[in-house]
Give the backbone structure.
Amino acid sequence: DVREPYEYEAMHIEGSLLVPRGILESACEWDYEETEPELVMAREREVVVVCRSGQRSVLAANSLQVLGFKNVASLETGIRGWKDYDLPLVDGEGKNVDLDDADEYFTAHVREDQLRPKDWVDPV
């Protein structure tokens, strides 16, 4: 799970390992403060990377492949899709999350200043 700790605390797939995207590269190598031994030793195992919607996990899966992980996949729909299939999620204390209550977590909370201006043209 490459989300941030506060996201993981809210809900995650039981048994998943939290490795935020920002520390992923050092977490999967020995001798770093962020080293996660389980991840370091998983280069030959199947690794499924998950985030909220599947965007960060695609980038993280690519990074893992570059670092020598042999069997990496990204959960395309993230935990949002996991929830949509009514699969279980737990909170930071390991308690089951009410999937109806999880909808609020997945609702976008975008401020007005974060929206694309109507006259915006993407530079190409």
Observations:
- Residues 88 and 96 are 7 Å apart (CA to CA).
